[in-house]
Automatic annotation (TrEMBL), chain A:
This is K+ transporter, NAD-binding protein. Keywords: Ion transport, NAD, Potassium, Potassium transport, Transport. Gene3D superfamilies: NAD(P)-binding Rossmann-like Domain (3.40.50.720), Regulator of K+ conductance, C-terminal domain (3.30.70.1450). Residues 135-217 form the RCK C-terminal domain. InterPro entries: K_uptake_TrkA, NAD(P)-bd_dom_sf, RCK_C, RCK_C_sf, RCK_N, Trk_Ktr_HKT_K-transport. It comes from Halogeometricum pallidum JCM 14848.
TrEMBL record, chain B:
Residues 23-75 form the Transcription regulator AsnC/Lrp ligand binding domain. This is Lrp/AsnC ligand binding domain-containing protein. It comes from the Archaea. Coiled coil: none annotated. SUPFAM superfamilies: Dimeric alpha+beta barrel. It comes from Halogeometricum luteum.
Length: 228, 76
């Protein structure tokens, strides 16, 4: 797909890299000379100029692009860029600068398909790193539904059993499984659970405690509930 | 008559509640719009004198959930 990213700072440039790594075509729009130069050195196509101006976005190819990410630290620029992109029929993503604005733009901004607040994602990562332990939240799917990565410990009551034998509560599913030090994959029912193995589980908040006791064991760090 | 515009920055996502509170603050508050960008609301006031503009702006500033206000008085 073709993407236009406004802003080649920490958020914009990293997003552009990830998209390029996955084989997509990315054009960056950057107003600052030094940042534009840095993005060019990283072999990106860069249009220098103000991302809130239509002619600049046209030079960046907004007319034929699939989606636009307005990822600068300036909310006025980001909103203007999304408005122009929406006019051209693109999918739009807006970066907000403060957490309370996430819900305001989700609710009111018709020009914006998705809102991102990068600090929230950073905070979830930092929280997981600080808590350590055998349970980490990966994603909030819905208000009461979370994907959690759990590591089997010596205390786990299911230690030595196969995935098929683990009787999880009704509102929980094993999504992925990985042996210790091996990549995660789709679970096979006769995989057996040993210390250090990891399970990604989709679970309702109500049964998270129960799932944790089954997979991790009684003395696990209670770290799952709530995002950031 | 004095027309003035108050730019308001919030500190909470409950913009509907704040909008409602500002509309009911004073008879001189003519409209409250939720806007995109670095401020969250533009409040239009129409009052008898500048003292009342100051009064309204101060009341908005004191509301909980409001971080900052900036007032512009129309000259035409």
């Amino acid at each position: 797909m073709r993407f236009v990213i406004i802003g080649s700072g920490r958020v914009g440039l990293r997003t552009a890299r990830v998209l390029r790594d996955e084989g997509h075509e990315v054009t960056l729009v950057e107003i600052d000379d030094d940042r534009a130069e840095r993005a060019r050195e990283a072999d990106f196509q860069v249009v220098e100029g103000d991302g809130s101006r239509e002619e600049v976005l046209e030079r960046a190819g907004v007319v034929d692009a699939d989606a636009l990410g307005a990822l600068t630290s300036d909310l006025n620029v980001n909103f203007a860029a999304c408005s122009i992109a929406k006019h051209h029929g693109l999918r739009t993503v807006l970066r907000v600068d403060e957490d309370y604005r996430e819900e305001v733009y989700q609710q009111y901004a018709d020009q914006v398909d998705e809102v991102v607040y990068p600090e929230r994602l950073g905070a979830i990562g930092a929280k997981n790193a600080l808590l350590g332990g055998s349970v980490r939240a990966i994603a909030d799917i819905a208000q009461n539904l979370q994907v959690v990565l759990m590591t089997v410990t010596d205390d786990s009551p299911m230690h030595g059993y196969s995935i098929e034998e683990v009787a999880l509560p009704g509102q929980a599913r094993v999504l992925a499984f990985g042996k210790a030090d091996r990549p995660m994959g789709i679970p096979v029912t006769d995989d057996s659970l040993e210390t250090g193995d990891r399970l990604a589980v989709l679970a309702d908040f109500e049964v998270l405690g129960e799932v944790r006791q089954l997979i991790v064991g009684e003395n696990s760090v209670a770290a799952a509930a709530g995002g950031a | 008559m004095v027309t003035a515009y108050v730019m308001v920055k919030a500190s909470t996502g409950d913009v509907d509640g704040l909008k409602h509170s500002m509309l009911n603050l004073h008879d001189g508050v003519e409209s409250v719009s939720i806007v995109a960008g670095d401020v969250d609301f533009i409040v239009k006031t129409s009052v008898d004198d500048t003292a009342q503009v100051k009064e309204i702006a101060a009341s908005i500033h004191e509301m909980s959930g409001i971080e900052d206000t900036q007032t512009y008085i129309a000259m035409d």
